[in-house]
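Board notes (copied after class):
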Amino acid sequence: MRNPVRSEDDAFRIVLLIVVALGLIALGAWIDKWLGVAVVLAEVVGVVWFVTQRGRPQPPERQAPAPSPPDEHRVLVIANETVGGPELLQQIQEHAHGKRARILVVAPVPAKPSAQWTGDAGHAPEVAKQRLDTSVASMRAVGLEATGQTGEIDPVQAAEDAIRTFRPDELIVSTHPPGRSLWLEQDLPDKLRERFEVPVTHVVVDLGADGDS
């Protein structure tokens, strides 16, 4: 919740409101004790409404990346365990649109869900980096200009950090199939569409069907 007292002016306004509220209660009670009770109840309801509205989180402002160079088509890929899937590579090749394609693959870490709450990443960063290196190498092998980096555990934050510097034309998010994907349970593709003014493509990578797990 936002702290209501952030300056001397805020403190003065709060004190003034308290004085006015007490004055209204005293005036109401002087006229009639039940009127005083009604004023108290009305003020309590007003305070509860104010605190509730002030404490309600505001939706983040939708962000648009700066334009990329006109001769490039930049693709930001957000993936973790599925970063090496062939479906992802195929999707990237299809989205080049005949331009010079530049790819940035971001793998948020740590991979295990409990680490978001415990802070214990274990070996997840090293594993993610290995997957990332393998995926980038496979992209370069088919002629794509690709780089990779690990990012924040929160994939939305990882995307925001990368968008700020990479300036992508589109974003591809790669997940496991429904039922096996934590990101789908968290509605990640829709969250990315709501947050960023950039086309978002969702690619499902079934590593089990590909024989990779």
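Comment from the instructor: Residues 8-31 form the longest helix (24 residues). The chain has eight helices and five strands.
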